[in-house]
Amino acid sequence: MGDANSRLVYSTDTGRIEEPKEKAVRPRGDGIVRIQRQTSGRKGKGVCLITGVDLDDVELAKLAAELKKKCGCGGAVKDGIIEIQGDKRDVIKSLLEAKGMKVKLAGG
Question: Model-level pTM greater than 0.70?
């Protein structure tokens, strides 16, 4: 029972034992920022998903805050993806291009 490869997964005292999560490393993109419009699962409300921004979490949050302010709408950052409420793809594209990023409109 005490061999080196065994690890405790469940205990009757505490339930499932969660292993400490390592810091998630996002895959590096191809240098192109993509803006996609999505409405599925959002009760018909559209959001713009901005992926491929090669910034750390702090800078990503600052960029999201700036985009929300310029667009006059809400949004969030989830798993390295910026979500901006509403269909503001053209505004977002021009703002990101002004920062020197290569931007593509993705999806329908």
Answer: no
